[in-house]
Amino acid sequence: MKLLTHNMLTSHVKGVTNGYPLLIKATEVKVNQLDFNPQFVSRMIPKLEWGALVQAAEDLGYRQDLPGELVVDYQQNEEFLKKVHRVLLEVEVMEGFLKCPESGREFPITKGIPNMLLNDDEA
Amino acid sequence: MLKQLPKFHCNDFPSSVSFFQLPDAPDHLTELLDLSADERLSILATLLRQGSLQGSSIIILSPLMDRPARSGVMAEGIVLLDNVDFRLPEIKALLALRGKPFHPCENFKEQSPFWCLEDLSEDDVRSVMARSVCAKSAFELWGHGQTDGELRTSLLNYPPQSMSPFMHKDSTYRINVYTFNKTLLFADRIKKIDALEYLPFEGTVSLKTPQHIFCLLEDYGSDPNNIPQHPDYMYFGRWIADGQRELIRTHSVKNRHFIGNTSMDAGLSLIMTNHAKVKENDLVFDPFVGTGSLLVACSHFGAYVCGTDIDYNTIHGKGRSSRKNQKKAALFDAIITDPPYGIRESTRKTGSYKENPKLPDGNYVESHVPVSQAYHLSDIFTDLLNFSAHHLVLGGRLVYWLPIYRPEYCDEMVPLHPCLQIISNCEQTLSSHTSRRLITMEKVKEPEESDSSAHLSDPRFSTYQGHNAFREKYFSGLNKRCGKDDTKYFNENK
Question: Is-above-0.90 flag for pTM?
Answer without folding.
Answer: no
